[in-house]
Amino acid sequence: MGTESLLVFIIIGAIAGWLAGLMVKGFGLGLVGNIAVGIVGAFIAGWLFPRLGFAIGGGILAAIIHATIGAVILLVLIKLVKQA
């Protein structure tokens, strides 16, 4: 993985984590936390969506949407575990 790819990966993760933090009320984790949530969310969505037969498409916008949905799933799960 080249430097440019890694930078794009981090930027997409940050955007997705930030968007997910906005969608799941009261659950922002700061810049580093948002990047981590976005990246983990992208992996979750990448694993889950093909099993459900769900596809968004290609490109950066699709990657952001994909990672955001996965990050929202992750944040909701974290929120449920913290409440228990």
UniProtKB/TrEMBL annotation:
UniProt keyword Cell membrane present: yes
Main localization of the protein described in the UniProt heading: membrane
Alphabetically ordered keywords of this record: Cell membrane, Membrane, Transmembrane, Transmembrane helix
InterPro entries registered for this protein in UniProt: Transgly_assoc (IPR007341)
Signal peptide as annotated in the record: none
Location of the protein in the cell: Cell membrane
Sequence intervals crossing the membrane: 6-24, 31-49, 55-78
Domain of life: Bacteria
Keyword field contains Oxidoreductase: no
Membrane topology, from the record: Multi-pass membrane protein
Family statement: Belongs to the UPF0410 family.
PANTHER family: UPF0410 PROTEIN YMGE
Protein name: GlsB/YeaQ/YmgE family stress response membrane protein
